[in-house]
Amino acid sequence: MISPCRRAVVLASSLLLGLALPHPPATAAASKTTTKTPTATVKSVMKTSSPVQATVKTETLPTLASRLAAVKTAKSLNYYPSGGGWTKMWTDWNPAKIDADLAKAEALGADNLRVIIFPSTFGWPKPWNGYQDRLATLVGMAAARGMTVKFTLFDWWNGYGEVANSISWVNTVLTRYKDDKRVIAFELQNEFNASDTAAVAWARKMVPAMRSSFPTMPLTFSVDGTSGVPGMAKIKSALASTPIDYFDFHFYGNSERALAVIKNAQATAAPFPMVIGEVGLNTLQNTEGEQAAFLARVFEAAEAAGVQSVAPWTLNDFTQGAIPSSAVSRIPAQYSYGLYRVDGTAKPAAAAVKAGWTNTAMPASLMDPSFESSAGQTPWRAFMPELGLAVKTQSAARTGKWSISLTSTGKTSAGSPSYRVSPIAPVKGGQKWHAEVWARGNAATGTTQIALSWFDIKDKWLGGSSSTWLPVGTTGWTRLVVDAVAPAGSTSMQVHLKSGANKGTVWFDDAVISAS
């Protein structure tokens, strides 16, 4: 960590470099850099009062192995300021806001920052010094917070025919970081499309060129969340003759089966290591409680699979206008992936990420076992609401103030209405699961119980187990329990508090879900 005094000096110099800079013309002068001779160590001789005596200070330079080890364990954060997403982070430069955000990231436990660089903004084909200075400032600000950085290059760019300019551009912008311990990896392009023949031809030339210029820098490409494991397999196959050092997997799929997906990705990447370079869930189409549970599941699954680096997307929600006019800016959900709201307050997901990064237990409140969480903060969801909507109520509670009730429900061959959730712990075949809940009824009819359902990696239902029924009529609080073993092939599980064909009312409270 850096002392408060030194941190103040870094921030002060950052602010000086943060003066407004006009966007450069394409012909702006290239940055001047000095290339260091690649050696294992750098030695400097300190002068003393004696002409004979000297103190030799040795600084160990990073190696490919040391940097790759840092990549595999990095507590990485994808970052843009809330008011400056994508290229606007650089054009609407605000170092004071950035440093305040880095303080939040540091408090969560982050030790690495993913920095995305756009050739169209930095100047193409010749980079402009002004934006390189801003990049250097950001690297220094991250270091002052105890964070290394990873550079993602060539985002929002498709000039694949310009290989010579691509190599020259990278060398101009990044040679100064060749032996800089603060920089641990280069991602040559974000969410690379291995089905694009021009992109693949460019990549096959860029990888060896970058190895020549930056022999100790790990190289990677990321795969988009839609292409997933098959997309990563295409990248590996396309670059078999010029392999990269590790694979960067972006996870935006179903978190309930995260362990199986991550293990498949690992097997596809092998023998190369894999990190989860992006993972997130928006809170426009989902609740904040669901977002927190989503991230908690992925962190828990990654730990079970032995993947030590999980990078949330992203620190902040974005204000309107913060994303430059683009296909991204026209997707409303893109503004709502943050761990923090635009007013700077934390969503429940921030606590989940902090637990994941600090290797502490996930907060019990994430699962909302007694239904006391405020509106939008629970991971539970109504299932088959057209047959009867599960609602949160204060009309009865076993503990606390709230419970869940179902009234006048229907039932079909497809099932009964319920209130459901998936556990945070990873699911796999052969596990023993225990679930319980307290229930009571008022003139209840039909079937009221707690039930478990298992699914395979393709979301096919594999079977289920249920507790005994709550007695019909009017009853006091009664404990319903189900114990069962997940069938072979299980990758996810759902817990349902259900009541079907019920002409009266039932309440549920104080649920428990655990695996052994």
UniProtKB/TrEMBL annotation:
Keywords, A to Z, come to: Glycosidase, Hydrolase, Signal
> Does this entry carry the keyword Signal?
yes
| Gene3D superfamilies assigned | Galactose-binding domain-like, Glycosidases
Q: Which residues form the Glycoside hydrolase family domain?
A: 85-317
Q: Which residues cross the membrane?
A: none
Q: Which residues form a coiled coil?
A: none
InterPro entries, alphabetized: GH, Glyco_hydro_5
* Pfam families noted in UniProt: Cellulase
Q: Which domain of life is it from?
A: Bacteria
Task: Extract the signal peptide range.
Answer: 1-28
Family assignment from sequence similarity: Belongs to the glycosyl hydrolase 5 (cellulase A) family.
State what protein this is by name: Cellulase family glycosylhydrolase
